[in-house]
Amino acid sequence: MKLAIFILRRSPLMLAAAAFLLLGQSQLQAQVEGRSAFFSRPPLFEEATTTRDAANRANPGYYFQITVPEDAGQALQRVVIAQRDGDSNFREVEFEPEKTRAFIGSGRRGEELSLGEVVWDEAANAVSVEFDPPVAPGTEVALRLQAERNPRRGGVYLFGVTVFPEGASPSGVFIGYGRIHIYENSDRDFFSRFRYRRH
Fold first, then answer.
1. Angstrom distance (rounded) from CA 88 to CA 81
2. Which of 84, 105, 146, 178 could form a Cys-Cys staple with 158, CB 3.0–4.6 A?
């Protein structure tokens, strides 16, 4: 391990090669010893959407689209969705974990997946969703979180997405931010009038 660190300091190319070899060795040890689990290729975050985009609107659904590639190496066990900058009453989105759903494909019309434990961490503004059974590689998943209502103020809201593979001591991977645009009612009225006049 000391030799690898020394080589990485000397050459960026050697750094990449050594990191690849070390990662492969860690994955092999994980399979043999059952200590840790890694994705060979992590899932891809596609997009985030909402069923209701007006400020303070009740019962909106937030969809997070994730693709588990065929060469992921591991099934998808758990997803954590965490709101960024949701530490004020005006910006916070509070989810209802018991209403969480997941579907195969790109929307609610696909086959519904079975979920395990779903936990809402109010202090961290995060939802942890466990799939039971885990989602196999080569599958596209639409995760639906139900919120009590949209934030009180319009703006762009960011939700970080972290995924965890099946296995003991899984290593989580952050795969991106979902962007949800919430509009003030006054903004909606203005743009509606503008579109009407244009036509």
1. 18
2. 84
